[in-house]
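[worker-b] picked up task from shared queue
[worker-b] task type: protein-ligand structure
[worker-b] ligand name resolved to adenosine-5'-triphosphate; SMILES cross-checked against name lookup, match
[worker-b] sequence length check passed
[worker-b] input payload:
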Amino acid sequence: MTGPQWERRIQVTTAEQTHALAAALGGVLEAGDLLILTGELGAGKTTFTQGLGEGLGVRPGIISPTFVLVRIHPNLAEGPRPGGPDLVHVDAYRLDSAAEVDDIDLENTMDTSVTVVEWGRDRVEHLAESRLEVDLHRAVGGDSAHLDKAVLDFETEDDDEPRTIVFRGFGPRWSEAPGILGTALPEGGN
Ligand SMILES: Nc1ncnc2c1ncn2[C@@H]1O[C@H](COP(=O)(O)OP(=O)(O)OP(=O)(O)O)[C@@H](O)[C@H]1O
Ligand SMILES: [Mg+2]
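[worker-b] inference finished, payload out:
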């Protein structure tokens, strides 16, 4: 498999920032787009998807689909993007193979929707020619000072923690990174 055409790493410090970044991305997504979200339990995949939903202007109520594998959130006429794509939210955690993915028939909705798959890596790449991969990491850019602070910071009321969110574009749809993800750092830059 060939590598990504570009990569962007963005650091956030709160769940609200993760939500806001995803909402900005949701504002530029198009019907047919496939997003693959990767990250450990509680990394923020569903939080990110909720932000996408806000930016897309779809029916709210995005949750971690514990028993339901697929939920469709229709675009709202009164939202920011009336007539825009629906959001199809998939949790592939319990799907063991591409064959099981095919059983849930995502092709039917892809053309009119943005399809977002939590735990989709190595399971759904075959569904589309292009894909946007989003990886959420608790580690912050190898900066152990930040990490120690996050781990020891148990006195605060809220549970906001830093995350590094890595975006990678594959295929013709993502020949260029969306402007809202900023410009790439030069080689050797900080
Ligand atoms: N910077 C952050 N970004 C996202 N979520 C954060 C951040 N800091 C703290 N959190 C908290 O981490 C939790 C993330 O939960 P979420 O359900 O989004 O994770 P998930 O990756 O979907 O988990 P699962 O694998 O169980 O589906 C939320 O409670 C959120 O408030
Ligand atoms: Mg989730």
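[worker-b] attaching auto-annotations
[worker-b] The first strand starts at residue 6 and ends at 12.
[worker-b] releasing lock
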